[in-house]
Amino acid sequence: KQANGKYLVSLIEGDGIGPEISQSIKDIYAAADVPIEWEPVDVNPILKDGKTAIPDAAIESIKRNLVALKGPLATPIGKGHVSLNLTLRRTFNLFANVRPCKSIAGYKTPYDGVDTVLIRENTEGEYSGIEHHVVDGVVQSIKLITRAASERVLRYAFQYAESIGKKKVRVVHKATIMKQSDGLFLDLGLELSKQFPNIQFDSELLDNTCLNIVTDPTPYNDKVLVMPNLYGDILSDMCAGLIGGLGLTPSGNIGDECSIFEAVHGSAPDIQGKALANPTALLFSSIMMLQHMGLNEHAAKIQKAAFDTLAQGKYLTGDLGGKAKTHEYAGAIIDNLK
Ligand code: NAD
């Protein structure tokens, strides 16, 4: 917090539609009198000792401000490019990826009343990047599970459940097959649950979770699901599908010190610069950020205005079947703030 009473937040506008959807957030926040000042941050990669790295100024900004809001970053395809998203995750040790999915009134999908929260271990597991060529035709990929990283994300899941008023934490796993790795993750969940007597703890096999969620997601509304990296990557997109896809879902990447909130979708180069982009996912990510910062009243006010605008259905962007431009949709949200 600064002397003027405002919090400084790093803003990575991102590529493609990033600047357009970021502008909507800035306009809505200004209209809602949110006590935030944005610090624009350029994360265009530089090469450091032959490796992709984020400029020092960007790292310093995020370290200083502790929170950042991030638009989509385009990842060049081809060898030698480490994804910037992965670089950010590693640089700030963002160990938990939080993905809530809540049904949006006014946007009909085959499922009603969805309210899932999924937390994915973000640093190891199947994505440790340890792969070997053993002999011709044989490769080996190592799934790394450590007590330290598992405990950290599991503890966060319990704390997050408490903070948002969910009563249960469920570990999703395949400990029947991955006896040692998922077994350790599961055991640690049970062990930690003793420190959180107000939260009920249980577990479910990943395949059962998939079947059960697409059959009826509503029994999952009172739970926070927590799981190793790969399962979370896949299952979180599946949950996004329940409410209408990646264009509507927010996410938070939580670290020991810094946290970065970002939309799940990409930079949408096909609609860049045409004012067709939907800023909802980035706006919802920013609402998670406000909650993380304890600015709950502002979060609730903006969330209500956005949900109202979507339910009214008059100013929807093209991806939701409407005709509104990005700024017209943002303008309708601003009108609903009053
Ligand atoms: P994408 O999400 O950018 O686009 C997929 C489709 O969804 C496109 O038709 C696009 O127009 C549409 N879309 C996405 N977001 C939208 C929005 N807010 N409003 C309206 N329509 C939207 O996925 P892609 O085309 O596979 O990837 C494009 C680039 O984005 C790639 O360089 C990729 O690496 C990058 N990417 C970045 C992130 C991230 O920064 N977190 C995530 C995914 C992809």
TrEMBL record:
UniProt keyword ATP-binding, yes or no: no
InterPro entries noted in UniProt: IsoCit/isopropylmalate_DH_CS, Isocitrate_DH_NAD, IsoPropMal-DH-like_dom
Cofactor: Mg(2+); Mn(2+)
GO cellular component: isocitrate dehydrogenase complex (NAD+); mitochondrion
Keyword field: Magnesium, Metal-binding, NAD, Oxidoreductase, Transit peptide
Entry's EC annotation: 1.1.1.41
GO BP: any one term: isocitrate metabolic process
An example molecular function term from Gene Ontology annotations: magnesium ion binding
Domain called Isopropylmalate dehydrogenase-like: residue spans: 8-333
Signal sequence, renumbered to the chain: none
PROSITE patterns associated with the record: IDH_IMDH
Keyword Oxidoreductase: yes
Catalysed reactions, as listed in the record: D-threo-isocitrate + NAD(+) = 2-oxoglutarate + CO2 + NADH
Pfam families: Iso_dh
NCBIfam families (UniProt xref): mito_nad_idh
Oligomer status and interactors: Octamer of two non-identical subunits IDH1 and IDH2.
Family: Belongs to the isocitrate and isopropylmalate dehydrogenases family.
PANTHER family (UniProt xref): DECARBOXYLATING DEHYDROGENASES-ISOCITRATE, ISOPROPYLMALATE, TARTRATE (PTHR11835), ISOCITRATE DEHYDROGENASE [NAD] SUBUNIT ALPHA, MITOCHONDRIAL (PTHR11835:SF34)
Protein's name in the database: Isocitrate dehydrogenase [NAD] subunit 2, mitochondrial
Organism of provenance: Drechslerella stenobrocha 248
Lineage summary: Eukaryota, Fungi, Dikarya, Ascomycota, Pezizomycotina
